[in-house]
Amino acid sequence: MTGSSSHYPLHASRSTLKQKSQLESIVADYNVIVIGAGPAGYVAAIRSAQLGMKTACIEKWKDTAGKNVLGGTCLNVGCIPSKALLDSSHHYYDMQHHYADHGISCDNPKIDISKMMARKDDIVGALTQGIVGLFKKNKVTRIEGAAKLAGGKSIEVTAQDGSKQTISADNIIIASGSVPVDIPVAPADHNLIVNSTGALAFDAVPKRLGVIGAGAIGLELGSVWGRLGAEVTVLEAMPDFLATADRKIAAAALKSLKGQGLDIQLSAKVTATSVNNNEVTVSYTDKKGDAQQIVVDKLIVAVGRKPYTADLGLENAGIKTDERGFIPVDANRKTSADGIYAVGDVIGGPMLAHKGSEEAVMVAERLAGQKSEMHYDIMPWVIYTHPEIAWVGMTEEQAKDKGHKCKVGQFPFAASGRARAHGDVTGMIRMIADADTDAVLGVHIFGISASELLGEAVLAMEFEASSEDFARTIHAHPTLSEAMHEAALGVDGRTIHA
Ligand code: FAD
Ligand code: NAD
Question: How far is 403 from 5, CA to CA, in rounded Å?
């Protein structure tokens, strides 16, 4: 992300607008209106306001008590609640399986699911309320209600009580996000067959849990309930496990997750589900094509998410979605309509909170005349299993496909003193470098704290680092980050500790 800190030329903008179109009101209600307050929308609103633009953000999300809340999918039913439950369940699993190694014993550990859920809800509440504070601090006007494009740069807002108002802006940023994909063979009844939102709110540990889809959600939520005692079967349609990850990392992760008790079946095609006597029968064909069935107490459908544009009035602004429902945008994230931009899950690409937030910053700064840009090829990916799976950049296979000659450095956490001290030595770091230029093309981690370790690699790649840059950088001892240093040394065959 680059750019100067110049402020939005408020008056210049309005006079330009006047010259461009006498039909538009000379002074719009706001310089920027953002639709949606997820990680793309609330960041767009805050950054726009920071740059001196008069900004409003419209959000319609209601929590289970019917109260309007900010934060979108990520804070309410996504990134944050899932990580809260991953942490709670990890403590429980560790207590049962690893505390004894430390000489700590605990007879008959118990879980109180309602307390675990209350803790999760408190975390969500604190963070969503935090955005309210950030809006106040940055003078973003919060508007509660459903936004609908009303033609030109006007938006009709319907409040919870049904009352309507129309407001206008110089620029509109759509950040309406995404919702879970449903599949006809497993329609959610939101009781026994649920999507990720339901799976974050079970009131008891299901004895038998089925998960359709071994993507980020399937693996994270499958892990949560598996650690708490559910027998988990994950049915994945594709033949490859985590097809976009490094092959060696994916193989190590699959072995580790299976070792934790997740029964992950690849090439499993679900053909039907039926609900009877409070259980779900899932019929599928296995990798040999043979018909199989499992019976489970809950079934999570986690087969991806789709863009959410319902009742947004895109047609009123002349905006057409693409064949998959995403809003098409240009390099500036501008839609086909003048002055209307879109960011986050609703425009496609990786459906990641940080991707939406960075797009939001870029659009706000460009509206303020800066030249900000972002590098989609240096996108961090993390799956918060235990250990975590994290990567940035190309896999060895992708690099070779793109014509690079590759050198690969690899270092196992089993050879890391800090990982040993933690008692958590699963996994490795793999660094892929170009054999001619030594530029680092990708870093792939499976291991303890992979999500945090990845930050070093992302930053280094933003600065176009070589593996030699990593190798010549002093890493503190004893830290997990020494494994990154050693993987870099390994690119040239000079690893010290393995
Ligand atoms: P959203 O967060 O979906 O927000 C869109 C907002 O727009 C919503 O609040 C919606 O109510 C509002 N809206 C829509 N239409 C209107 C309208 N007409 N009027 C007013 N408001 C409207 N990503 C990660 O990077 N890391 C993770 O660890 C991670 N974990 C996840 C775990 C789960 C279980 C799930 C489901 C997702 C996870 N994600 C994660 C994905 C992440 O949540 C999304 O990529 C992110 O929330 C997208 O942000 P967004 O702002 O584009 O959309
Ligand atoms: P996903 O795309 O990550 O995974 C879906 C999986 O389901 C894929 O492996 C796919 O092959 C499989 N699948 C699709 N249809 C199927 C079928 N009919 N039967 C069996 N398997 C099928 O999607 P997700 O896990 O639902 O997550 C949705 C989005 O949320 C993703 O874009 C993801 O990036 C994001 N997310 C990110 C994180 C994170 O960053 N840690 C966590 C959760 C969600």
Answer: 39
pTM flag (> 0.85): yes
Whole-angstrom Cα distance, residue 476 to residue 480?
9
For residue 445 and ligand 2, the question of a CB distance below 6 A is answered with no
CA 219 to chain centre: 13
Residues noted as catalytic: 477
For residue 212, count other CB atoms closer than 10 A to its CB. Answer: 24
3-state SS, residue 68: strand
Residue with tokens 């945008």: 329
List the beta bridge partners of residue 172: 33, 340
Dihedral sign computed on CA atoms, order 226, 479, 407, 457: positive
Displacement of CA 463 from its chain's centroid (Å): 24
pLDDT at position 107 is 87
* DSSP state for residue 220 in the 8-state scheme: H
Give residue 19's pLDDT. Answer: 45
- Assigned CATH topology for domain 193-303: FAD/NAD(P)-binding domain (3.50.50)
Residues 6+ apart with CB under 8 A from 169: 28, 29, 30, 31, 32, 33, 56, 153, 155, 339
Fold equal for 193-303 and 387-491: no
Is CATH 2.40.110.10 the classification given to domain 387-491? Answer: no
Name the nearest CA neighbour of 49 among 35, 33, 36, 28. 33
Distance 395 CA to ligand 1 centre (A): 27
Q: Measured from the CA of 351, which atom of ligand 1 is nearest?
A: 45
- Please name the residue that has the structure tokens 């793109």: 402
Separation of CA 344 and ligand 2 centre (Å): 17
| Cα 438 from Cα 471, distance rounded (Å) | 11
Residue ranges, the chain, pLDDT below 70: 1-26
Alpha carbon of 461 to ligand 1 centroid (Å) = 27
Instruction: Report the alpha-carbon distance of residue 486 to residue 429 in Å, rounded.
Output: 9
Q: Which tokens sit at 140?
A: 């973003």
What are the percentages of helix, strand and coil residues in the chain, rounded to 5?
35, 25, 40
Superfamily of domain 4-73+119-180+306-367: FAD/NAD(P)-binding domain (3.50.50.60)
Closest CA to 221 of 338, 77, 25: 77
- Which class for 203: exposed (0-12), middle (13-18), buried (19 or more C-beta within 10 A)? exposed
Compute, in degrees rounded to 10, the torsion defined by CA atoms 159, 161, 163, 167: -10
Q: What is the pLDDT of residue 26?
A: 58
Ligand 1 residue neighbourhood (C-beta within 6 Å): 35-41, 58-61, 72-74, 77-79, 82, 146-147, 175-178, 196, 217, 308, 311-312, 344-346, 351-354, 356, 384
In the chain, where the domains are located? 4-73+119-180+306-367, 193-303, 387-491
